[in-house]
Amino acid sequence: MRIATFNINGIKARLPRLKEWLEETRPAVACLQEIKSPDENFPASEFEDIGYHAIWHGQKSFNGVAILADGEKPVESKRGLGIDGPKDDEGEQARYLEADVNGVRICNLYLPNGNPQPGPKFDYKLEWMKLLRERMQHLLTREEPTVVLGDFNVIPEDKDVWSVRAMANDALMQPESRDAYFRLLHDGWTDAIDTLNPRGGVWTYWDYQAGAWQRDHGFRIDHILLSPHAADRMTATGVDKAYRGREKSSDHTPVWVELKD
Question: Looking at the whole model, is its pTM more than 0.85?
Answer without folding.
Answer: yes
